[in-house]
Amino acid sequence: MTASICLQNLTVNFDDRFKLSEIDWSITSDQHWVITGTNGAGKSALGAVLAGAGEIESGTLSGVPGKVGLVSFEAQAELIAQELKKDDADIMDVIAEGTPVREMIFNDCADPDLASELVEKFGLTGLLDRAFRKLSTGETRKMMLIRALSSKPDLLILDEPFDGLDANTLVMLQEHLAAIVDDVPMILVLNRFDEMPAFITHVAYVDKGRLSHTVDRQDETAFNELYQLLHLKTTDLDVPEADPASKLPDLDPAQPLVKLKNIRVKYGDDVIIDGLDWTIERGQHWQLSGPNGSGKTCLLSLITGDHPQCYVNDIFVFGFQRGNGESIWQIKQFIGYVSTALQWEYRVSTSCKNVIISGFYDSIGMYTKSTDKQKEIADQWLALLGMSDRADQPFNKLSYGDQRLLLIARAMVKHPPLLILDEPCLGLDDMNRQLVLALIEKICEAKNTTVLYVNHHAEDQIAGIENFLALSKAG
Amino acid sequence: MANYFNTLPLREQLEQLGKCRFMALSEFADGVEALKGKKMVVIGCGAQGLNQGLNLRDSGLDVSYALRPEAIEQKRQSWKNATENGFTVGTYEELIPTADVVLNLTPDKQHTSVVNAVMPLMKEGACLSYSHGFNIVEEGMKIRDDLTVIMVAPKCPGSEVRAEYVRGFGVPTLIAVHEDNDPKGEGLALAKAYAVGTGGHKAGVLMSSFIAEVKSDLMGEQTILCGMLQTGSILCFDKMIEEGIDAGYASKLIQYGWETITEALKYGGVTNMLDRLSNPAKIKAFDLAEELKQIMRPLYNKHQDDIIDGTFSRVMMEDWANDDKNLLQWRADTAETNFEKTPAGDVEISEQEYFDNGILMVAMVKAGVELAFETMTAAGIIAESAYYESLHETPLIANTIARKKLYEMNATISDTAEYGCYLYNHACVPLLGDFMKGIKSDVIGKGLSVEDNGVDNARLIEVNAALRSHPVEAVGSVLRGHMADMKKIV
């Protein structure tokens, strides 16, 4: 390994419009990185910092080589602004043509032979004498790429270099980049994983102005998780429709989904819940919190019908006053449910696709044949999760986080009026946690499902939840 | 009371023994309708009683528990089980007269006294249900003429009955109507609704008879299910010690080995269990099993004969009358075996190693399953029934050994099964004495030490064909088809 660029606890301010916070990152000269993240996450800003942009508030940035080639929309805009300024500054009362492209490329050019070759390849030959500011956006971008590539940089930063290029040019550029990997370390800012060139060795994921993950491409598991996370965050997919053939019975819109009155649960002399009232109206998202042993899961299982003492309490759910001859399957059909316990119980040797389909039957595993429509919907969910390639893999061979995502899809597949998420992030690492939250937010905004979310991690809040029930230990 | 089976003419005996039909799912289209709104009172709140009650209530049925006054006053475990789960609990006098269906889910041994106490309290035309027909068939209990008598017998331990229901399934279940007690002709409708209420219809229901259930159940549990595993555990452990295998390793190989190898049995029958072995090991296991079958066949025949002619139940009931003297003694003896006293060692054994180093155990399971199946069908029991009472239940019993060895197995199974298990073991251990002398650690403890895995093609084809063509495999593959997506054990 050779000299490295080092960012230590670096906070950078961009005209008070944006801030990169507490970045720790090091890049050695034999590495090629992609910086990725959602729109507005700060990935371009992070690339630009290495080219000297922004104002360092705290921390250190060291080891940046002398000559950095930067291509980005911001740099492009700046170049154009400079050109216009030059125009304004002209006191002569003539119509200025502005700097020609030839001058922009070949003045101060470190490698004119390369520049000529690239002009040819990018198809700019006919435009060399045109004024730079008369170029289209795409042409300007090509010109900037030529400038950067022929400047013999020590570090090349290309922000969305493939954006807006036609297919042939794109292939040409990728080939050129691949040919120079041994000469210059590269940092590419990319929105899409599928554009990632093969020579990339590392990926940095930026979220909300922070560098939240760095992944070595060799680490396949982490790489796939990052791919999925980005996929969920950036793909504008709709939540798949419900199966028209297995439509749920209509609920009376005037009645609450759940109404619990004076709930009391005890084991022997040990009172878990004492005198609780709780009503969940349709469309009212709730967050339920409380310390371990405060009865959160117990309360949920009274609603789902999994708690045997639901028969000795005053419980109204989905139009049924419990204990009047209804079966638990009549209750469960209205509920989508995800918990760590469910994941433990879900020890069946079945395919990922069947796990999703089992949500139509509220069963763990499948005991009956699914319909073509159900299979189609399951495929849509797998696509939404970025897991289409794993449809037929056994569920129990998946990572813990992927299993959790599938179980959320299983819970949502029938578009239940009530979705219960009992600590959906429990036991997940940070990446999978973000994956799960991204999926839940997608569900919350997309469909007419009331969400009941149980979590004691304050930071895992979900946008759209405004009602809170906090349990304390009874005693 | 006389043995009911023995009072029947031969023609009737054969007809009842041969009663067994796998029912179609469409026959359960009425769901729990026949029991809807009826009052079901369960007697006994052990594993079957509690878990069946939980399932029936969750299916929308009205369930309560009748316990003896002492159990209520002293807040015994059965009382706690019922009340903590939010059920109404009362005495026989309080609840039985209101019951439309009385579910007798007490141990066999208590049946006579329970039924004698309950019958006078039952209302005219009500239904009495059993999960096991011992009391009717072997003890010859006569039930009041106006009462309907049915049997609904889930073929799994109570905990499984509940766990499978909760995940949206059920366990294979056997139902029967006692033809002497079906005055209104509603027995079958009630039994079907009950099977739906416990979820059994989703996993397959066999329409059987009290007699076929009892004679096959007794045979299965005392031979392959419990007896063979007990004998195998003791013999394999002692052999490994004799061969110088580490005691902790030997103990672990057996304790978890039965579960692991029968998991393969559960998924794909005897064929799949042997397919898990290398080719030379498979041929070895096959040969050992053939030898075992030849030695043990007379013993299996004797058990079946004693069960059919009532000798077994008569002798066991003598022990009941003698305060379970033999049972308790044999239970204590089992606790003193070397296998039982040696804790499993802290060694890693991979899933495949249980097969590779447990060739003899595989052979014992194969021999036991096939012999039990063959003996039962030879006695006139239908293949489906014989399958459930042999191959199907073997992994379930093996699970109990993995939990806490033979102690757990014998504590989990009924006293009747436990008694039969010891009878078998006492006869089988000496019977296999000479056979075991020829056994070395290559088939138990260490695995074959072959230079290469080559085998004779013709012999392998012969063995594979024999494995796959055994009748228990044919019926098994059909019945397993009804139990898709089985739960993983290991």
Question: Would you kindly provide a written description of the structure presented here, covering whatever features stand out?
Answer:
Chain A: This is Molybdate transport system ATP-binding protein. The complex is a heterodimer of chains A (475) and B (490). Chain A has 475 residues and is of the alpha/beta class. Chain A has 2 domains: 4-234, P-loop containing nucleotide triphosphate hydrolases (Rossmann fold, 3-Layer(aba) Sandwich); 244-470, P-loop containing nucleotide triphosphate hydrolases (Rossmann fold). Chain A contains 14 helices and 18 strands. In chain A, strand 8 and strand 9 (210-216) form a beta hairpin. Chain A is elongated, with a radius of gyration of 28 Å. The model of chain A has no long low-confidence stretch (mean pLDDT 85). Chain B folds into 2 domains: 20-207, 3-Layer(aba) Sandwich (Rossmann fold), CATH 3.40.50; 213-480, N-(1-d-carboxylethyl)-l-norvaline Dehydrogenase, domain 2 (Orthogonal Bundle), CATH 1.10.1040. Chain B has 24 helices and 9 strands. Chain B has a 9-stranded mixed beta sheet, sandwiched between helices. The model of chain B is unreliable at 485-490 (pLDDT under 50). Chains A and B meet through helix 9 of A and helix 3 of B.
Strand and helix map with partners:
The complex is a heterodimer of chains A (475) and B (490).
Chain A: E1 4-14, E2 18-28, E3 33-37, H1 43-50, E4 55-62, E5 68-71, H2 73-89, H3 101-106, H4 112-121, H5 137-149, E6 155-159, H6 167-179, E7 186-189, E8 202-207, E9 210-216, H7 220-234, E10 258-267, E11 270-280, E12 286-289, H8 296-304, E13 314-317, E14 320-321, H9 328-332, E15 335-339, H10 340-345, H11 352-357, H12 372-384, H13 400-412, E16 418-422, H14 430-446, E17 450-454, E18 467-470
Parallel strand pairs in A: 3-7, 3-8, 5-6, 6-7, 12-17, 12-18, 15-16, 16-17
Antiparallel strand pairs in A: 1-2, 1-4, 8-9, 10-11, 10-13, 13-14
Helix pairs in contact in A: 4-5, 7-14, 13-14
Chain B: H1 4-7, H2 10-17, E1 20-22, E2 39-43, H3 47-58, E3 62-66, H4 69-73, H5 77-84, E4 88-90, H6 92-95, E5 101-104, H7 111-118, E6 127-130, H8 134-137, E7 148-154, H9 158-166, E8 173-177, H10 187-197, E9 205-208, H11 210-242, H12 247-275, H13 279-309, H14 311-321, H15 325-335, H16 338-341, H17 351-356, H18 359-378, H19 383-392, H20 394-412, H21 415-431, H22 433-437, H23 457-469, H24 471-480
Parallel strand pairs in B: 2-3, 2-5, 3-4, 5-6, 6-7, 8-9
Antiparallel strand pairs in B: 1-9, 7-8
Helix pairs in contact in B: 3-9, 11-12, 11-13, 11-18, 11-19, 11-20, 11-21, 12-18, 12-20, 12-24, 13-18, 13-21, 13-23, 15-21, 18-19, 19-24
